[in-house]
Amino acid sequence: MRRLLVVLACLALFSVAAKPAPSGTIALAPGSDARLGGTVNFVVTTSHLPGNANPRVQVLCYQDAALVYGEAYNVGTAFLLGGGWSLWLERGGPADCHADLYYWDFHPSQVFNWLAGTDFAASG
Predict the structure, then answer these.
(1) Helix, strand or coil for residue 45?
(2) Can you tell me whether residue 87 is helix, strand or coil?
(3) For domain 21-122, which CATH number applies: 3.40.50, 1.10.10, 3.30.70, 2.60.40?
(4) pLDDT tens per residue, range 70-121
(5) Which of 50, 28, 60 is nearest to 104 (CA)?
(6) How far, in Å, CA of 79 to CA of 73, rounded?
(7) For residue 55, what are the contacts with CB-CB under 8 A and spacing of at least 6?
């Protein structure tokens, strides 16, 4: 009986330790218009997220290391590059952009959980 309890305890520990980590992928969707004022979408996959996870995408665009545009939305939302107002809209020109796939975990405190990222160039 004691041996059975030890085996069951080991199996329980192994099953907890073997749980796969959350993961994901992100890529610019075909047909996206990667330019200032254009709309871009992303092809996203996620797996093994916690039950309460709400995956999101953030897009950050830079000119000469200066952040000129940034927004974040739920997965599946299209991004209007430059938004309604941004430094990028004022300056014009091309920008180097980066999109991150992530989710927030609020237990026991708020934690940003990065899953994947992709870079793309956007014309002005």
Answers:
(1) strand
(2) helix
(3) 2.60.40
(4) 999 999 999 999 999 999 999 999 999 999 999 998 878 889 999 999 999 9
(5) 50
(6) 8
(7) 24, 44, 46, 49, 74, 75, 101, 102, 103, 115
- Residue the block writes with tokens 């002005």: 124
Question: Using CA atoms, how far apart are residues 102 and 55, in angstroms rounded to an integer?
Answer: 6
Every domain of the chain and the residues it spans: 21-122
Instruction: Determine the Cα–Cα distance for residues 117 and 89; give it in Å rounded to an integer.
Output: 24
Residue 119 CA, chain-centre distance (Å), reads 12
SS3 state at 84: coil
Length of the chain: 124
Listing DSSP states for 104-123 in one string gives: EE-SSS-EEEEEEEEEEEEB
Amino acid letter for position 58: Q
C-alpha distances out from residue 102 to 80, 109, 111, Å: 19, 16, 10
Quote the pTM value: 0.82
Question: What is the CA 62 to chain-centroid distance, rounded?
Answer: 18
